[in-house]
Amino acid sequence: MGTKVLWVFIAFAMMISYMVYRCMLTPVDLVTKEYYKDELSYQQVIDAKKHAASLAGSVSLRQGGDGLLLLLPAEMQHRSVDGTVQFYCPNDVKRDRHFDLRVDSAASQRIDPGMVPPGHYTLRVKWTTDGVTYMDERALTVL
What we know:
The protein has 143 residues and is α+β, with helices and mostly antiparallel strands. Helix content is 29%, strand content 34%. It is built from 3 helices and 7 strands; from the N terminus they run αααβββββββ. The protein has helices spanning 2-25, 35-40, 42-53, and strands at 60-64, 67-71, 82-88, 97-101, 108-111, 119-129, 132-142. The strands form 2 sheets. The protein has a 4-stranded antiparallel β-sheet. It starts with a helix and ends with a strand.
């Protein structure tokens, strides 16, 4: 009886050891490298999203054979716009893509095909014009 209890204990210890070993090999990626710093400045994100929601239109993305076409709201046409575009892939950090926002007078920017691999993304567009910061975020699938 005592040896059976000992074997059960040894088997349990080996199973727990194996699980700890496997967990140590599993990569854990945070949303951003500076997660805690970004969390402290989250009020700015909330304000930027409110500013974007107050616009008549919203950010849109069209997909075609010649790439992706990012369109800012019509209010941004013929204005100086500075910002960033982020394609965040929640299941693979290697697929994340970051671009500077360089829109033309029609408030659009073309992203070449192949720059963003097909998959599921969260599109984050953050821009500043006339001292006001805007941010739009949406889920999308790149084909």
